Amino acid sequence: MRRTLFCLSLAVLQFVSDPASGQTTAVPDSIRAEGAPAIPASLSAALNRYQNIRSASFQGWDDTKPRAVYVATRFADTPQIHHVARPGATRRQLTFSAERVLEAKPRPKHDQFLFMADEGGAENYQLFLQDRTGGEPRRLTDGKSRNTSPSWSPSGELLAWSSNARNGRDMDLHLAAPADPNFHRIFKEVAGQWNVADWSPDGRGLVAEEYLSIAESYLHVIDVATSQVRTITPRRTDPKEPPVAAGDARWSKDGRSIYYTSDKGSEFRRLARYDLSTAAETWLTADVPWDVEGYDLSDDGTLVAVVFNEDGLSGLRVYLAATGQQRDVHKPPAGQISGVEFRADSHEIGFTLSSAQASSDVFSMDLDKSDPLMNVSPLERWTESETGGLDVSAFVEPELIRYPTFDGKKIPAFVYRPAGRSDAPRPVLIQIHGGPEAQYRPGFLGRLNYLVNELGIVVIMPNVRGSAGYGKSYLKLDDGVLREDAVKDIGALLDWIAAQPYLDKNRVAVSGGSYGGFMSLAVQTTYNDRIKAGIDVVGISNFVTFLKNTQDYRRDLRRAEYGDERDPKIREFLEHISPLAHVAKIRTPILVVQGRNDPRVPLSESEQVVAAVKKNEVPVWYVVGRNEGHGFAKKVNQDYLQAVEVLFLRKFLLGEGG
């Protein structure tokens, strides 16, 4: 949920003259640009190293080999699946799609894996089966519907997943047998969004998550043969009862229990074990005041490795499954840990690790060898991604601050300050995350390091009210009619910036993507006299038109967050808080970015705000990715967009070039 994949497209290039230097720079044919000037060739050259930072992510163990992994990484055009036979070995590419490959699921007991890919960023994900030894992949889905949460049965003979193929809206549960192309059935028709979570050890049952919103979800056990459903996290019967979220379910190795995370009776998501025979819940992480963000169980059922979101950083703890007692293990370096998974028949975990000074790479750790008294390194590095020749150890670490806002609450934010002393106050870029139920976390900045290192801009990443990671009360602070309070949190950040001697309150820009794009537009209409420029990436400009035009399968999920526009009072409120209603107040330069195929925030949201702001007679730069969706995923488009953004900030924030 949480990061955009960076990839490269072999789009046709046209060459445009740079009027300032007479040199030329390539503009992708996949881009429609309005208002933006030609990119100086010198800028493209300066950005080159930052645009060639790579990363790798753990996709699972290959259980047909003694010790090997699948990873996702990009060497050529787009992120693809690779196989690594041992730590540090050459990454052998297995998929060669022109589109981004989003996820791989190794098929148990087979030299095969499943992968997911869409086309043009439309997010109609298709499932493909690929032999590890080579050959053409076989598509298992219909080529047009949206397919998610694939899960193999323990034997690898059956595949379950969610799909909206029936009506384009509801995510039914499907079942197929890759060995029999004629076998494919819907084993559970549903209303809403259901996701496959895990299989029972005997392959007869599934546990599925019914998702209503980030604050409300339920778990169900389903008999695969009969489709009979047993709900194990009861629904609330009174609308006045607080909702409960439950998810990330795993069946215990003995088949007697189900593990899951839930915020029942707590501000945070804790790890629970549910006994299927007695319906008793046991809370394994009740003493940790942070969300569980990931976990896995060892095959022998003795250990549970749990990753927590601890104020934005990842914390790893290991528990004895039988008693819940915490076991001492080596702590990985501070950063972001994801995808933790035990290797079969072992206590070795694989995962992805990144930090402010290290791009994402794949590591493993044998928990039986993680005693700090042993004179060995407990971490083994499987991949070492290239970073464009840059010295990543010089990249700045963020400072976590908490600034006061209008109602006395403290808003967390990460501040990236350029290294070295500066007598003059520095310019600022406020970067606002999307979601809105997301959270900025201090991982690897990648390309954004250029702004800090080369332009001397202080980048501030606030987690305004409504952000995840700080408890469900904080998460709900921007719901419904409280939406504008999150915008006020940025107003309070502007006050904080003005009070800092090392920051220039007269040179502040704001940027954001998706919901962060709405926030950026809202800041530009509410505090336009306090900023120099704004960037809106796939942002919501009018909540009513957004809810009307977003994809059917998303509409009710977004109504749960923003409100139901079919209610006249809610509709009036949504129209009032929409930036489009106040667009005449934007008197500073604006850059708007949009993917033409975006299924979440459709093209019309950007088209209408661009047309309206042009009437204000201010500079309007508009960039559309013709083959992109919710953000730019293809590297050639990303490279062009980054150059445009840097040129925009240099001109309108830093005051370069007139």
Summarize the structure.
By secondary structure, this protein is of the alpha+beta class. Helices cover 16% and strands 35% of the residues.
Which features characterize this protein?
658 residues; alpha+beta; Neuraminidase; Rossmann fold; nine-stranded mixed sheet; four-stranded antiparallel sheet; 39 strands; 35% strand; disordered N terminus
CATH class of the domain at 398-652: Alpha Beta
Outline the low-pLDDT stretches.
1-21
Q: CATH superfamily of the domain at 398-652, please? A: Alpha/Beta hydrolase fold, catalytic domain
Shape: globular
GO molecular function, one term: serine-type endopeptidase activity
Protein name: Dipeptidyl aminopeptidase BIII
Enzyme class: hydrolase
Keywords: Aminopeptidase, Hydrolase, Protease, Serine protease, Signal
Secondary structure elements and pairings:
Elements: E1 13-17, E2 24-28, E3 31-34, H1 41-47, E4 56-61, E5 69-73, E6 80-84, E7 92-93, E8 101-106, E9 112-117, E10 126-131, E11 138-139, E12 147-152, E13 159-163, E14 172-177, E15 180-188, E16 193-199, E17 205-213, E18 216-223, E19 229-231, E20 246-251, E21 257-262, E22 270-275, E23 281-283, E24 291-297, E25 303-310, E26 313-320, E27 326-327, E28 336-342, E29 348-355, E30 358-366, E31 379-381, E32 399-404, E33 410-416, E34 426-432, H2 449-453, E35 458-462, H3 472-475, H4 483-498, E36 503-513, H5 515-526, E37 533-537, H6 543-549, H7 552-562, H8 568-577, E38 590-595, H9 603-614, E39 620-625, H10 635-652
Parallel strand pairs: 34-35, 34-36, 36-37, 37-38, 38-39
Antiparallel strand pairs: 1-2, 3-39, 4-5, 5-6, 6-7, 8-9, 9-10, 10-11, 12-13, 13-14, 14-15, 16-17, 17-18, 18-19, 20-21, 21-22, 22-23, 24-25, 25-26, 26-27, 28-29, 29-30, 30-31, 32-33, 33-35
